Amino acid sequence: MHYRDSIGALALAAALTATVAGALAFDQAKYPDFNGQWSRMRFPGVAGQPSFDQTKSAGNGQQAPLTAEYQLIFEENLKDQAAGGQGIDPTSTCLSPGMPRIMTAYEPMEFVITPETTHILMEHIHDSRRIYTDGRSFPESIEPSFAGYSIGQWRDPDGAGRYSVLEVETRGFKGPRTYDAAGIPLHKDNQTVITERFHLAKDNKDELQDEITINDHALTRPWTVTKHYKREAAKQPFWRESVCAENNSHVEIAGQHYYLSASGELMPAKKDQAPPDLKFFNQTKK
C-alpha cells in the first residue's frame, strides 16, 4: 500500500515538474503583444459589404486578377445577386466562409499564443484557426477543410532578440469558397496556397496587419492585400455570441435560393422564380 502511494507521489511530482518546466520554457516576452480584442478596420469611402481588399469597394472595385474563365463566373454571379439571388456566395446557409475570407473578421478575433500553436479565435460560424508553430512540415495527406491546414514560424527580422512577425502558409482546402460576399471565386480545384505575415503596425501598436498573398489557379498572378485590424480599448471587452443559423431567413432547395417571410412562409428570392418541387407533399386542396 505504501509502495503504491510512493509511486503515485513520484508520478505527481514528475507531472508538476514537467508542467513548471513547460511554463518556464514559454517566455511570453519573446512574442509580440497580440493580446486583446481585434476588429476589422473600416476605410473612408469604401462602399458595400466587407471586401477582401479593405481599401477598395466590393465587386468589380476589387480589381481581382481573375483569369478570363473565372472573370466570367464572377460576372454571372454578380448578375444573379443583382436579380435577388446569392450568386456563388456559399455562406447564406451558414456554410463556413473558409480561407482567405475568414480573415475578413466578421466578428472580433482573439490571438492565443503558445510555443506549439497560435490560435485565432472568432465567434463567427466556424472561423477559428489553428496555426502550428512546432516545427512540423505539411503532412503527405491533408484532410481538406474550409480553413485549411496552417503552419507558421515566428521571425525576428530586426535581430531585436524577440519575435515581431508570424509567417504562415496554409493549404489543404475544400470548397466552395469565395473571397467575400460579392462572390469573387477561387478555383474549383481547391489547390489554393495562402501565405501571411502577421505583425503590428510600426507606427501604431494597436493596429495589427496581415499581409496575405493568394496563389490560386483562378488568378493570373498572386494576389496580395494587407488586412488591417484595430485593438479595442476596453480592458475587458464584450465577446458577442454569433450563431449564423439563428434567425437565418435564407433557404436553399435543390440549388435555388429562397427566403422565409417574417411569418415563416417560403418566398421567392428573384422575380418570376419558380417554386420548389413539392411532389412529396400532399397538395390536395381542402
Q: What would the keywords be for this entry?
A:
single chain, 286 residues, alpha+beta, 3-stranded antiparallel β-sheet, globular
Uncertain parts: none
User: How would you describe the shape?
Assistant: globular
The proportion of residues forming helix, as a percent range, comes to 10-25%
Query: Which sequence of strands runs across the widest sheet?
Result: 1-9-8-7-6-5-4-3-2
How many strands in all? 12
Radius of gyration: 23 Å
Strand content: 25-35%
Indicate the multimeric state: single chain
Structural class comes to: alpha+beta
Q: Quote the average pLDDT.
A: 89
Number of helices, where a helix is a run of at least 4 consecutive DSSP H or I residues = 2
Helices and strands, in order, run as HEHEEEEEEEEEEE
- Main sheet characteristics: 9 strands, mixed
